[in-house]
Amino acid sequence: MTDSLPLNRRSAHITQGKERAPNRSMYYGMGYTAADFDKPMVGVANGHSTITPCNSGLQKLCDAAVEGIRAAGGNPQTFGTPTISDGMAMGTEGMKYSLVSREVIADCVETCVQGQWMDGCVVIGGCDKNMPGGMMGMLRANVPSIYVYGGTILPGCLHGCDLNIVSVFEAVGENAAGKISDQQLQDIERHAIPGTGSCGGMYTANTMSSAFEALGMSLPYSSTMANEHQEKVDSARESARVLIDAIRHDRKPRDIVTRQSIENAVAVIMAVGGSTNAVLHFLAIAHAADVPWSIDDFERMRRKVPVICDLKPSGKHLAIDLHRAGGIPQVMKILLNAGLLHGDCMTITGQTIAEALKDVPDQPRADQDVIRPITQPLYAQGHLAILKGNLSPEGAVAKITGLKNPAITGPARVFDDEPSALQAILAGRIRAGDVVVLRYLGPKGGPGMPEMLAPTSALVGQGLGESVGLVTDGRFSGGTWGMVVGHVAPEAYVGGTIALVHEGDSITIDAHRLLLQLNVDEAELAHRRALWQPPAPRYTRGVQAKFAFNASSASKGAVLDDFAPHAAAR
Fold first, then answer.
1. How far apart are CA 507 and CA 409, in angstroms?
2. Average of per-residue pLDDT across 11-39
3. I need a surface site. Which of 59, 183, 246, 430 has the fewest CB within 10 A?
C-alpha cells in the first residue's frame, strides 16, 4: 500500500473486484460519516481487566491510543482480549490456563483483525502471555501493527527495602523454614504490590517487552516505562501516530520480524538476563512469522552475547531502574557497537535499528550500576542454556546466572504433580544434594505447561536454591532462579525419558557440559519404557482438552498449529 492507494481496505474495491465493500449501514449506526470510509480502520486490542494489577492500568493507554489514531486520521475500533494472572494462578489448577491464554489471545487478535478486515492494529497488553499472544496474532494477521506494553510496576517497600512479587513467594519458604514470623510474612504480602503494572523484575512480561523493542515492534524506551507514569500514556498515543504512518507506508509485521530481528531480540534477552519463558515464546513467535528458528539457535546466541545488566531475579535491580539507567536503547547501543546486533533491521517507525540508536551514548552512564560496559559483563556468556542428554534429547532450558556452580549430581525425588512437591519442600523432606523431578506437567500432560514458581521460591526461601536441583517438563516463572531446568522434551505424557525416572535414580545437571542426564543404563531404560503406559488425559472437554490434543513439543514452542503441511517441510 502506498500513499496513492486507498487506506481502508474494507470500503475499497480491491484485488480486481474479488472483494466487495461491506455493508456500511452498520458503521453509520455507530456514528460514522461518509468521510470515515476514506480513513484506515485501526483495531485496538485492549487487554484491560480488573483481574490483575498487570492489566488494571491499561484502559488509560487504550484511551490514549484511540485519541492518537483519531488525531492521525484513522478510525479506532476497540476490542478485548483476555488475560490470566500468572502471579495469582501460581500453584493452583488455574496456572494450567496461563499458556493456553497465549493461544486464545493470539486467536482473538487474528480473528478480529481479519474478520473485520482492519487496516492496522495496536495491541495493548500487560501480563506475561499478553505479550507473545498479541505478537503471534499480529504476525498471523500481518497488517501494520504495533505493540504497546502496559508498563512495569513500581517497587513495593518495607522497612526501606524494595519488594516485588517474588519477594512474597520466597517469604513463604522463609516462613516455612522458621526464618520469619507469620506477621513478617503478612507484612511482605501487604507491601509487595503498591499499584498497577506488571511484575517489576526482569521476569517474563518485562523480558518480552524488552525483546519486542529490540525486535522493532515497539517504540524505543517504551518497554521499561512504569505503568503509573505519564510517559507511558504519552508513548501509547505516539505509538498510534506511528502506526498510522506504518499503514500509509505498508510496514507489516512480517517485513520487520525476520531471522535477523529475532537474533536482535534474543541478543537483548541474553544481555538483560531475561526469563526462560522467552525461549518458548520466541519459538512460537518465529513459527507465526514463518521464520526458521530452532531451540539450538538460543544456545548459538548464548555463546556470543554476555549478560551486561544486573537485574532480578538473579541480580539486584528492577526494570524501572533499567529505564532510569538508559533503558533498552542503551543496552542495544552497547550490543550494536560490539557487533552483536543487526543494525540494518527495519523498525515499525521506518527507521533502521542503527538509525534509531544514532543519538544513544556509546557507553552506559558512570552514575549507575544497572547496565555494565561490555568489557565488564556480569557473565561472559548468556544465561539461558539449552541442555541435552538422555533425559532431554530435544532440549531443556536452564537459567544459569547467579549460581556459584551450575552442576549437580544427586538422587531423584520424583513427583507427578506440583502440590505434592511443594508440600514435601515446605515439610523439610527435600535436602541439599537432591534433584526434584516434577513431571506430567508439559504442554500435553499438564496440560498447559504450568509454571513452578511456588516450589522454586520455597527452595530459595529455605536456603536450598543452589544445593537442590529441580527438573520439570513444565515451565518456570520469569521470577525463578536456582539450579532449575524446565521445558524438558519430550515430555512425560508422550513417553519422554522423564516419565521413566524412579525415586532415587541418579540425575546429573551440568550447565558447563550442557548436559541433562539420567544415570541409568540403556537396557534398564528400555525395560522401563516397555512397561510404561500413558496416563488418562486430565481434561476431555473444553479449552484444556483442545490445547492438550493440539500442542506441539515445548522444543517447538508448544504451538497449536504445527500440523500445517508447510511446517513438516521446514
1. 5
2. 71
3. 183
How many residues in the chain?
Answer: 570
Question: What are the distances in angstroms from CA 449 to CA 5, 418, 471?
Answer: 46, 11, 13
Residues 6+ apart with CB under 8 A from 349: 219, 242, 245, 246, 356
* Phi, then psi, of 399 in degrees rounded to 5: -100, 115
Q: Which amino acid is at 38?
A: D
C-alpha grid cell, residue 231:
510517559
**Nine-digit cell string for 500:** 521413566
The alpha-helical segments, DSSP class H, found in 462-551 are 522-531, 542-550
Whole-model pTM: value is 0.94
Cell 481496505 locates to: 9
Q: Which of 83, 105, 96 is nearest to 451 (CA)?
A: 96
pLDDT tens for 409-441 read: 999 999 999 999 999 999 999 999 999 999 999
The single residue of 239, 457, 477, 553 carrying the catalytic annotation is: 477
Which helix (H) or strand (E) is 75 found in, with range?
strand 75-80
Quote the pLDDT of residue 40.
Answer: 96
Domains assigned to the chain: 39-154+195-356 (no CATH), 157-187 (no CATH), 384-556 (3.50.30.80)
Q: Residue 314: which pLDDT band, with cuts at 50, 70 and 90? A: confident
Distance separating alpha carbons of residues 11 and 5, to the nearest angstrom: 12
Q: Using N-to-C axis directions, what is the helix angle for 165-176 and 182-191, rounded to 10°?
A: 170
One-letter amino acid of 114: Q
Q: What is the maximum span of the chain, computed from C-alpha positions, in angstroms?
A: 76
